[in-house]
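Progress note, sequence design subtask.
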């Protein structure tokens, strides 16, 4: 082949390569300083810039700002040494949209070995990147709320610890748990429960200042990580408490689900730390302990971890074991406290549970009832209490002077919400041939926060069988007038906290008078609880109260 022919063959081959490369790739050529000297059509198409706009500029024109400075520094270092660089770059087109390109940059030298040009070939990998990003996002986020999940948390904690060390500042965790979630989920169904969790996530987003992390740990548990707080512990604590209190206040407001007003509070545990070498699991453990303490303190509480908590938690665990044993060994019994009329004649009794501990002696319910409720043991204990009360009514039914006396039994929310609660009561009434009108069930206001209509249906079923319901500790919950209007109650029990200072405190007296008036209009009986003195009794009587309970008439006793 002659030289002319050879040359034309090579030219043809090169032209073919160019066509093939142009068809497949985004191509640009720059001079040694990075100034663009050539772009192909694909480059213009993807960057939305014309060749005229690109030629003479540098690649800075399509810089997305997504890569850290050292990324390009490293790239330049490689190609300036005459080596090929390969990597994935995120660029920004003229319209501001991001796109990803898989890039190969080939440095081209002249015959003297001097770097003259850079030849870059790119392929569009945006689609692949987007699906990768999506998969990564899904792995690190909770599908329901869109919040980061537990896996994300580990990364976040590491980051926070590093930052805290670097800046010598405090960081904190707020662990949150909804107070009423299980109840809502059980009564309104999972769909509504899911909706509530989404609402809670939104509330958290509105309460936590940026740039901090809110993580859904699972179920109704959330974690807020606050970083770069003050170097001073007390000031850091104040900031965290402010955020936690804001969350508590927001979540304590009623929400609407399916046009129903529901109420879920939240308890929070806080752990503040600095330069911690503790593994992330330990950090979480301390926040969890504080949360446990907060829940133990009652609903809607915020607790900051302190070292004494660990001891208390161990003691609680021991109490749980002891309670389980006590249930098996039948160590619970009932004391009865009389309820009298204005003439001080006994009209009934309230059954109050006691734990006869083999070493500690008589233990009052305040020391164990909350834990029994939370652990689920309340179902067994509650059944025992109801059985003992029905047995007592049966025995009294045989004695003329006791046959008309009622027994009021305290019912926990967990017991009442159990689907077969009404069946249990009916079974016991039948077994002990109890006159149902003598068995009063004492409920508390919190029972109606979640599913008032379902609760009413359950109450009505038992009312049809002749049972009566009282609202215990009235005035200490939300005391919504709406409840009073629609709940089929027959009695209100004014909480002891109002009766206590009725003689000295005008406000308490006014509240009691209002409750009495309200009850009169709604045709409800009223029992004033915690009457301790003659003056209290007189004042209540003069205000129209007709039933009374308290140490003034008699303490709870084993035998009546
Ligand atoms: P409660 O139902 O409001 O019961 C009244 C509480 O006030 C009783 O405390 C009673 O001993 C106390 N009390 C009565 N009169 C006076 C008084 O004049 N002065 C003072 N200072 N106190 C008075 P107790 O027996 O310690 O029970 C506390 C709470 O434990 C009860 O409050 C009730 O909520 C709960 N409880 C008691 N027994 C049971 C039970 O069998 N099941 C459930 N779920 N809860 C129970
Ligand atoms: Mg009671
Ligand atoms: Mg009470």
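Output:
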């Amino acid at each position: 082949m002659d030289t002319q022919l050879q040359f034309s063959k090579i030219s043809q081959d090169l032209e073919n390569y160019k066509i093939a490369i142009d068809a497949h790739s985004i191509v640009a050529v720059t001079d040694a300083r990075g100034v663009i000297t050539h772009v192909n059509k694909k480059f213009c198409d993807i960057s939305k810039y014309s060749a005229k706009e690109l030629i003479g500029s540098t690649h800075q024109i399509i810089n997305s700002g997504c890569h850290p400075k050292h990324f390009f520094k490293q790239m330049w270092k490689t190609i300036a040494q005459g080596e090929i660089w390969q990597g994935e770059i995120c660029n920004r087109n003229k319209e501001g949209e991001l796109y990803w390109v898989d890039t190969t940059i080939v440095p081209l030298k002249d015959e003297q070995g001097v770097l003259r040009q850079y030849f870059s070939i790119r392929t569009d990998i945006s689609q692949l990147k987007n699906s990768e990003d999506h998969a990564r996002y899904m792995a690190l986020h909770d599908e329901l709320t869109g919040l980061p999940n537990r896996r994300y948390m580990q990364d976040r904690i590491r980051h926070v610890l590093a930052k805290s060390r670097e800046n010598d500042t405090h960081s904190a965790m707020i662990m949150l748990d909804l107070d009423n979630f299980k109840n809502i989920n059980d009564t309104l169904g999972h769909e509504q429960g899911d909706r509530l969790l989404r609402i809670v996530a939104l509330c958290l987003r509105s309460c936590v200042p940026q740039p901090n992390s809110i993580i859904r740990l699972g179920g109704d548990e959330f974690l807020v990580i606050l970083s770069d707080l003050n170097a001073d512990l007390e000031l850091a604590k104040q900031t965290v408490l402010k955020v936690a209190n804001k969350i508590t206040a927001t979540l304590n407001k009623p929400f609407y689900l399916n046009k129903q007003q529901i109420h879920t509070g939240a308890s929070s545990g806080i752990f503040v730390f600095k330069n911690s070498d503790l593994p992330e699991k330990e950090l979480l453990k301390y926040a969890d302990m504080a949360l446990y303490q907060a829940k133990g303190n009652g609903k809607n509480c915020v607790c900051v971890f302190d070292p004494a908590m660990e001891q208390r938690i161990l003691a609680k665990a021991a109490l749980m074991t002891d309670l389980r044993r006590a249930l098996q060994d039948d160590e619970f019994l009932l004391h009865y406290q009389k309820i009298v009329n204005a003439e001080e004649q006994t009209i009934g009794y309230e059954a109050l549970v006691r734990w006869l501990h083999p070493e500690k002696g008589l233990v009052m319910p305040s020391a164990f009832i909350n834990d029994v409720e939370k652990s689920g043991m309340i179902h067994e204990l509650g059944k025992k209490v109801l059985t003992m009360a029905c047995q007592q009514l049966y025995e009294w039914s045989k004695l003329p002077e006791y046959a008309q006396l009622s027994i009021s039994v305290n019912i926990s929310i967990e017991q009442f919400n159990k689907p077969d609660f009404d069946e249990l009561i009916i079974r016991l009434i039948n077994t002990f041939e109890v006159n149902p009108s003598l068995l009063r069930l004492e409920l508390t206001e919190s029972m109606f926060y979640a599913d008032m209509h379902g609760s009413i249906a359950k109450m009505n079923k038992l009312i049809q069988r002749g049972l009566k319901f009282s609202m215990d500790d009235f005035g200490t919950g939300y005391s919504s007038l709406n409840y009073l209007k629609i709940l089929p109650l027959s009695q209100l029990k004014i909480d002891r906290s109002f009766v206590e200072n009725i003689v000295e405190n005008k406000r308490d007296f006014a509240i009691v008078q209002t409750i009495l008036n309200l009850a009169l209009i709604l045709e409800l009986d009223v029992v004033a609880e915690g009457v301790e003195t003659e003056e209290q009794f007189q004042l209540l009587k003069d205000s129209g109260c007709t039933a009374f309970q308290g140490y003034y008439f008699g303490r709870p006793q084993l035998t009546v």
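The chain has a mean pLDDT of 89. Work on this subtask will continue into the next period as scheduled.
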